[in-house]
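Tip: read the tokens left to right.
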């Protein structure tokens, strides 16, 4: 193999996959550099869609991107595995042994040589050490977890439908801890599921038998977003008969209940944790790289890590400073998308001996989708800097366009158009809810 500059990207989430796609199309195709993506899974699904996979309103199989197939089309290599360590002196990424579902070792520990390393491993749920959370809560950090949730949800509906048929107590209590975007959107998707499943045979369980509660420690839901957006979201949730409990920190989670800080106990058959994120713990042990309290890698505005000029990090796993602000870039999909664009330019410049591109975050606003009911959000004005509140079909159009922009970055306009048409056909022919 010819001696090309080797760029290794660890993490095939939204930002990581967009970055290797751009690098492969420009540098890999022309043999200007060797590009490798490392990820612990075989496929990619846009993380903001995981709550739809969990509820069944989205079929993950139809929206997955196979890394190996995508790598072949876009001139990069793919390595299956989980990063477990780093040897900065020898410039090697340590990949943990890969095991099959029976625990048999398929591939032993490996070391991948790099010239430039990019870490984009995203984030995981932060339960803040709440007693019982790890054992009794469901999480939506990965596609596997979303699929597991979906299966458990279908089984819970089936069980309660049978209990209703037997004239037994059959209320299904679902609690969502955390009222950020994921928690709020998941609540709306679950309400849709409670109304759709009776159409497909579970007609003894009525939507009113499914009690959905959203629990938020702050004094309002969507605490990181503007107050008007929070108020509109609260009204919509209550309109959909979803209980909104604010100012209610959770102190403990049991198998069948959630205990509030004031001692109030809320019955819960299914409990989902959506109350905060943190970077993966292994980042704090990467050969001296600097991290903050949330395990995020400390980076310069150029996305270079503070301790190593050959290592970059971006997305949820990185704490990127901004000028005139004491707060780092927020962990949002639009930030990862913008950082991937900036880092693409920086890495191309790096090969040509030119300067890095400082990253400047441009907040385009926020959109919250309430399944098929409505969408609300605020858009930031490019000229005035003020936000504009939108809702309904216009907001829904903007919301859908976010995912289409991600697809365009991965496939180009023409293929994205074909995918959009196939999605339309699939929705017309398939049930409104995934039933298995």
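Filled-in amino acids:
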């Amino acid at each position: 193999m010819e001696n090309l500059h080797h760029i290794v990207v660890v993490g095939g989430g939204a930002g990581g996959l967009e970055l290797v796609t751009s690098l492969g199309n420009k540098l890999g195709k022309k043999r200007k550099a060797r590009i490798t993506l490392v990820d612990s899974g075989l496929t990619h699904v846009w993380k903001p869609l995981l709550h739809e996979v969990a509820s069944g309103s989205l079929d993950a199989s139809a929206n997955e991107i196979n890394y190996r197939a995508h790598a072949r089309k876009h001139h990069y290599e793919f390595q299956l595995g989980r990063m477990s360590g780093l040897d900065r002196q020898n410039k090697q990424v340590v990949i943990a042994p890969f095991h099959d579902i029976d625990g048999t070792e398929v591939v032993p520990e490996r070391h991948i040589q790099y010239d430039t390393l990019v870490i984009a491993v995203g984030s995981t749920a932060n339960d803040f050490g709440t007693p019982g959370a790890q054992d009794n809560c469901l999480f939506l950090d990965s596609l596997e977890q979303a699929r597991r949730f979906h299966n458990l949800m279908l089984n819970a509906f089936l069980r309660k439908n049978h209990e209703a048929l037997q004239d037994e107590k059959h209320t299904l209590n679902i609690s969502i801890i955390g009222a950020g975007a994921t928690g709020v959107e998941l609540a709306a998707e679950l309400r849709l599921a409670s109304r759709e499943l009776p159409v497909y045979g579970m007609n003894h369980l009525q939507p009113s038998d499914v009690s959905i509660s959203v629990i938020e420690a702050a004094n309002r839901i969507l605490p990181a977003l503007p107050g008007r957006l929070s108020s509109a979201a609260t009204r919509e949730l209550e309109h959909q008969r979803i209980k909104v409990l604010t100012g209610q920190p959770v102190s403990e989670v049991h198998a069948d209940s959630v205990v509030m800080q004031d001692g109030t106990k809320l019955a819960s058959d299914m409990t989902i944790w959506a109350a905060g994120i943190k970077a993966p713990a292994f980042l704090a042990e990467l050969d001296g790289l600097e991290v903050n309290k949330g395990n995020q890698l400390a980076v310069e505005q150029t996305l270079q890590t503070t301790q190593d000029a050959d290592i970059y990090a971006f997305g949820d796993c990185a704490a990127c400073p901004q000028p005139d602000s004491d707060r780092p870039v927020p962990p949002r999909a639009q930030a990862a998308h913008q950082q991937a664009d900036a880092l693409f330019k920086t890495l191309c410049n790096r090969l040509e001996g030119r300067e890095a591109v400082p990253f400047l975050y441009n907040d385009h606003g926020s959109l919250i989708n309430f399944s098929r009911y409505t969408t609300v959000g605020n858009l930031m004005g490019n000229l005035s800097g003020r936000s504009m509140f939108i809702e309904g079909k216009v907001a829904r159009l903007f919301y859908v366009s976010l995912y289409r922009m991600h697809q365009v970055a991965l496939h180009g306009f023409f293929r994205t158009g074909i995918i959009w048409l196939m999605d339309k056909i699939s929705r017309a022919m398939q049930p409104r809810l995934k039933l298995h």
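The first helix runs from residue 14 to 28. The mean pLDDT is 92.
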